[in-house]
Amino acid sequence: MSLVLDNLKKSYREPGGGRIPVLNVPHFELQTAEQVALVGSSGGGKTTLLNVIAGITSPDSGRVVVDNVDVTGLNEPSRDRFRALKIGFVFQTFNLLPAFTALENVLLGMCFSGKGTDSHRATDLLTRVGLGHRLHHRPPQLSVGEQQRVAVARALANHPSLLLADEPTASVDIANQNTILDLIRDTCRENNVSLLLVTHSPDVAARFDRIEKLSDFNLSEKASGGR
Amino acid sequence: MNLVTIAIKSIKQRILSSSLTALSVALGVMLMVAVLIINGVVSDLFSQPSFGFNLVVGPKGSDLSLALSAIYRLDRPGEPLPYLFYKELKEHRAVEKAVPIAIGDVTEQGGFPIVGTIPEFFDLDYAYNKPFRVCVPGTFLKTPWDAVIGSRVAATNGWNIGSEFKLIHGGAESDHIHDEKFRVVGVLAPTGTPNDRSVFVSLAGFWAISGHEKPLKEAIDRLEKFRYPVPQSLRDKAAKPNKAHDAHAGHDHDHELLDEQKEVTAIFVRTKSTVAEIALAGEINEDVRAMAVNPIFPMKRLMTMIVDNIKLMLLTLTSLIIVISAVSIFVSIYNSMSDRRREIGIMRALGARRETVFTIILAESALLCLGGGVIGLLLGHGLVAVASPVIEARSGILVNPLSFEPLELVLFPVLLVVGSLIGFLPGLAAYRTDVAAALSE
Predict the structure, then answer these.
(1) Between the CA of residue B55 and those of A78, B44, B78, B188, B303, what are the distances in Å?
(2) Looking at CA atoms only, how far is residue B11 from chain A in angstroms?
(3) Which of A167, B138, B147, B253 could form a disulfide with B182 if both were Cys (CB 3.0 to 4.6 A apart)?
(4) Any chain B CB within 8 A of the CB of A79?
């Protein structure tokens, strides 16, 4: 099993002192190498869910188990290390560092894993995403599609067992959307990586065998009718 | 790739503001290095712990002025002493060696001070157990027109054995060039003392220069002041105006000068013992005619009262400049933190620990300080290189731009600490960054 969520709850403090429930997930599972599209409306808690799974945000209660490790039971430094090693992240806005070249952005992903950097693997990954000729270009010198490919290569740099993709095609045009999506799915398949891709686009979701509506298993969203 | 590489990348990303902040540190360090070097040279020069003699005898007046003029050739010489006084002193029971000098003229080329002296000058060590050495062997001051030059004079003027030169009477600002020519017969090895920029000529030659002989009437007055008997023949000669002599002013003065007409500026004395030094100094200083000074004492006073205080003031000022630069680095990094929240959020999302992003900011700040420090160090030595000819021309002090002060090494650990302190608060801001919030910005 690649990912298990159990009784996961997360709420945010309101300015008035009360709390707004954002996540209430009784149970969710993702098999090893499985690919799931998670569909939800804006403000429905999709990004919060990904942050909680990645250990960026702590849940109020419940368990997140990734690759048989209870992430919620780890202290923060261990969670950071675990995230670097086991979880790849692809963001909607790519989140590449503009001062770093494509190659350096991928190496940066390796830098925090504690295992050292591997230029050969970084070059290989970028070549596999079609950027072998753009290794030393910085993000502003790359097209939007190319930037997202760098982000995909970076997410896979440390051989993760789970890839979290937060609206990875929302910032690219239709032509690039399919290319990026294929790239993410193919590379995950090739590397035996589980994929949890968040999208609000039915077209993107339709390409997946398993589609989950956040409102179906997030009781908070169900209660609020989609936030 | 490591944390330092990431910090360097981050600095490069903000190259303009980073360069300006590093430059402000560099300027502070440059000034501090220049102050340290120049102060080091001045301290070494004026704190010379020993000379080849232990007393300088000169006219009554300021002991500091006597040391500065006779040894350092930086001050104007006072009233001269009669040569007879030197002869008397030489025979004193406490004296092991006495060497007269006559100063006041400079070379026409380069304006280096002329020291008229006797060959025995070179028998006195220039510092304790450091005898004079000659680069080019020569016979010292055997004839009246012989000259031995210091290493700096040789290097600056390009002089060597056989070079001939003329003197300017009374100092560089005078336009009276003596007709007589001196010839270089020896070049001294560098000593790191004012002797390097001095030209030693035969005392006989110095006196033989047209205009250097004392008018008889003035010579008689000085002899009387020093209570020496004036021979009647001298009074008679002074009473008769020598029209024939005056008519050919500027002629070669090969005729012998009377001892009564000769004068010296100061006398370097090596006494037979420390007790003898104290006794001789006491004896001379009780007399109204002259004074004897151990040069170490006035120079120590100069260092303590003036040079050290100036150094302290300049170091305080330059330290303040570095503090101001440090504050500007702090402001620059701290202001950039809001722009960098997302960058920090990304790194944290990629697995960077809080301590890691804290260290990156600290490294960035330390690198800016150290980089500024290295540039400042080079600029400081460059500044000294540019300023040294001016300093030498105005004060006669030789400053080597390559001389290194041990305190310069202390600057770097200090800058590292300052850099770390500056980076602490911005680093803490990075440490506390809320990753989810930073990524959603």
Answers:
(1) 77, 20, 17, 23, 19
(2) 9
(3) B147
(4) no
